[in-house]
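Standup notes
- DV: blocked on the single-chain target, sequence here:
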Amino acid sequence: MRRTTARPGTLPAGPAPADGAAAAQGPSTDAPGQPEQAFAGPVGPGPAGAAPAGAQSLRTEFPFELPRGYVDESGTVHRHGVMRLATARDELVPLRDIRVQENPAYLSVVLLGRVITRLGTLPMVHDGVVENMFASDLAFLQDFYRQVNAEGHTRAGVTCPHCEQPFEVELGGSRLGES
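- DV (later): unblocked, structure below
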């Protein structure tokens, strides 16, 4: 497939691909002597720089309440916390941890220690806190992590073209793990 470069001051004709594939390819250098341009505007319909009507910002932090609660060394129970979305780095770094290499079940402890940003009045949450939680709280957090990170991204907000009412659709079909 031959790619062409847009002339200076013009934008590509027609709708932009929804998956961003053209933007990922970068500018073409097939036309010698013409300056390279990258399309920096938003993908999809609407004027450049304008956010789509009803657009929502990405939610990256999610509050939770532990079923039993973490009991610290002074006897204080901490039940309310916040978990952030995991990054690829959050899932890759624990794989280098010697404890995870020796015992793969420890992966969830290290991973949760990275993504839980707040728990009660604790100054810091780390894998040492997670490994001292009750089993029911650990199971709750593992399920919550899956819900937030794996299942949460399969819903999309759309608007009905006829009545212009917003609603959500499930893009992933069934829930993960179900057949």
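- Follow-up: DSSP finds six helices and five strands in the chain.
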